[in-house]
Write a structure and sequence with these properties.
Elements: H1 2-6, H2 20-51, H3 53-63, H4 66-93, H5 100-125
Helix pairs in contact: 2-3, 2-4, 2-5, 4-5
Length: 126
């Protein structure tokens, strides 16, 4: 009976404080999904741009729209984060950066570098 009284009554995801490595791992998965979902669009735009001069102009017009520019910036972040987190993971597989302080530092580096690359891309695109 005493055990039942100490159990939480709700599970608030906003109160959970995840370690930086967990956030990097989640970002790695999200970035992979974004990349996979964007591939058909990019293949379509590439195919369109290679069809003819008119197709190229149409593709340039599509890529010039603000929502598409935002998608491209998100894709650039996804690619940067996915590659950096993947390299971090591969290095940890061979015991480089595996101790906790080094793992935290590399996770922060991946997250910050991804944000810097996103800001540079957004500045160049928008």
């Amino acid at each position: 009976m005493e055990h039942e009284q100490r159990r939480p009554r709700f599970f608030n995801l906003m109160q959970i404080q995840m370690p930086v490595g967990a956030l990097t791992s989640i970002g790695h998965r999200v970035s992979g999904i974004i990349l996979a979902l964007c591939v058909p669009f990019y293949i379509y735009v590439l195919q369109l741009s290679l069809q003819s001069p008119r197709g190229y102009a149409l593709a340039a017009g599509i890529l010039g729209r603000l929502p598409v520019k935002a998608l491209v910036a998100a894709s650039i972040w996804a690619l940067a984060h996915h590659v950096l987190a993947g390299i971090r993971h591969l290095l940890s597989d061979v015991d480089i950066g595996s101790p906790l302080p080094a793992a935290r530092t590399s996770a922060w580096a991946v997250n910050c570098a991804g944000l810097v690359i996103l800001l540079l891309a957004a500045g160049a695109l928008l």
